[in-house]
Structure formats: C-alpha cells, structure tokens
Amino acid sequence: MFCGVNRLRNNTIYPFLKRYLQQRWITEWAEMGERGKPRSVCGLTSTGWEALVGKLKEFPDSDASSGDVFRLCVGLFRLLRRPDRERILTARDGYLQYRIQQFRELDFEEIPPSLQWRIPTTRFFVEQLELERKWISQLRFQNQNTPESCIFG
C-alpha cells in the first residue's frame, strides 16, 4: 500500500512524474529495456534530494499518528541529521504513549459477555504499541551513538 492505494496505476504515477519533472526534482532519460524497446527512467536531481529531505524534516503531528509514514521516515533516516531523527522519534513515541493511555483508560468492569472479546483485543493493541516504543528506544540509542557522518542503518 502506498499513500492509501493498494496498487499504483499509470494515472496515479504519471501526474506526479510530470509535476516532479516541472519542478526539476527528477530528471528523465531513455534506456533500452529487457525486450529491446526503449523505456523512460527517472532519477532524483540535487533539487529533488533537497525537497525529499525537507519533507522528511517536516514530520508534522499528523505523520506521528501514522505507522506507515513513521516507518518510511525511519527507512530514510540516513538522509537526516541526528536532531531531525530524534525529533521524529520523540513525536512518534509521544503519540504511542498517548494511545497506550487511551487504551488503559477503557473501563472493562461492566462489559457484557457478548463483548468480552474487547479485553484481549485491547491488550494485543497495547502490547503492539509497547513493542514499538521499545524499538524506538533502540533507534534512539543507535541515533545517539552513531557519528553524524555515518549512514544510519
């Protein structure tokens, strides 16, 4: 899934490519394909890299609530400086703490038997959130102990 779409289609990709070409974020060239037909290939320009890093640095609160966006950012951490990585980790961890608190405040005292499935389901969600917080702690340790010039991995 990418941006809420299960399968990318031409009418999804080409408008982005056209816009990115106009903004000079990407460049396009032709290469010979596997079957001998020419095909278009695109690559990021220096302006494109700057735009990508700028978008990664933004990481608004709305992104902190998305596990998919967070994992994408972590995958691209090597492009960011230590303070930017730390800010992203802090934002996501804060969101996870908030969600854990919400789940823990649920009152299960007066649940009818037909809704008892909610208890193990809620416990499962909390365990998943706590596991992600543990992973974030490991990423924080790595971030603090990795020289700024090294690729974050």
What's the gist of this structure?
With 153 residues, this protein is mainly alpha-helical.
Could you give the count of β-strands?
2
One letter per element, helices H and strands E, the order comes to HEEHHHHH
Instruction: Please identify the structural class as seen in this structure.
Output: mainly alpha
Separation of the first and last Cα atoms: 23 Å
Query: How many helical stretches?
Result: 6
The overall average pLDDT, rounded, is 88
Low-pLDDT residue spans:
none
Biggest pleated sheet: 2 strands, antiparallel
The geometry reads as elongated
Strand order of the largest sheet: 1-2
Rg for CA atoms: 21 Å
Question: What's the number of structural domains?
Answer: 2
β content, as a range?
A: 5-15%
Instruction: Indicate the percent of residues in helices.
Output: 55-70%
